[in-house]
Amino acid sequence: MRGRACFGLIAALALGPTSVGAAPRAELVGTFVWQDGSRDFGGLSGLELSRDGLRFVVISDRASIFSGAFVRDTQGAVASATIEDARKLVDASGRPLAGKAVDSEGLALLADGTIAISFEDSHRLTFRADPAAPESTASPPPGVAEWRRNQALEALAAAPDGSLWAFTEGKIGDRHMIVRFRDGVWLSPLWLSAEGAWRPVGADFGPDGRLYLLQRDFWPLVGFMSRVLRFDVSESGPSNPQILLESRAGVFDNFEALAVWQDGEGAIRLTLVSDDNFLPVQRTEVVDLRVIE
Fold first, then answer.
1. How far apart, in whole angstroms, are the C-alpha atoms of residue 251 and residue 229?
2. Could you give the C-alpha distances from 3 to 35, 270, 283, in angstroms and in order?
3. Backbone angles phi, psi at 14, to 5 degrees
4. φ/ψ of residue 13, rounded to 5
5. End-to-end Cα separation, the chain, in angstroms
6. Which residues are the signal sequence here (predicted)?
7. I need a labelling partner for 86 at 20 to 30 A (CA). Which of 43, 120, 174, 232 fits?
8. Model confidence over 16-27: pLDDT tens digits?
9. Domain 2-292 adopts which CATH fold?
10. What is the C-alpha to C-alpha distance for residues 269 and 235, in angstroms, rounded to an integer?
11. Residue 147 — pLDDT band, cuts 50, 70, 90?
12. For residues 80 and 78, what is the distance between their CA atoms, to the nearest angstrom?
């Protein structure tokens, strides 16, 4: 595995005015450009980490899944990555996914090790016992007829109560739908107010029980903007949003994956990974942040 660390990025450049000087906020720890010679590597859209942030599972939006280990520096930023297992996802019959079925976007690991993956072209929520196992598919979620092509279940997170939360990238009216699945049943949907052109693209529940949501915007000819919000959570949905990070257009690449973990000193850490769209003008970028209260 080849990789190069990119440090020295000025935090004041990376953070928008809503984050600088605010509390709480996410402080930049380091960046890393992840390179691999495999033809299937790229387009990373979902990330899960072990509690210590060292072991990873990541999926691409072309139905590939990779697992392995990060090496982190003394500050806790990723310095290198080793892929130990790489394979194509298969359908219920054990055949590699193909056609519209390949658009894997959201990733979550359940407490029993089950791998949950959401797909946003052929809208569905799937489960696998391990990366090589055939998929089983949940019944169609509520509201699926209203979802746009390629703007459906983009972000997926496993909540502390065992439910899965999946966020639609596209808006339904002036809101994003949050569909929840638990014990084989779809629960009543929740809603997230849309703000401008920000779209949910990644989500995770932290060790503190709160919801962390990665959103993306895009300015033509300038580049991507990203922000991370933190919410309190109840049965009525997410509340009390706090903007931890808001990047200026073009500073970072196309972040689509977010994982939350806790370091040895008890601080909340955020690891973000970008989708390079398999384009040479983009890159797979890993950024580590520390939440400052």
1. 18
2. 5, 20, 12
3. -75, -30
4. -75, -35
5. 35
6. 1-22
7. 120
8. 434 444 479 999
9. Neuraminidase (2.120.10)
10. 26
11. confident
12. 6
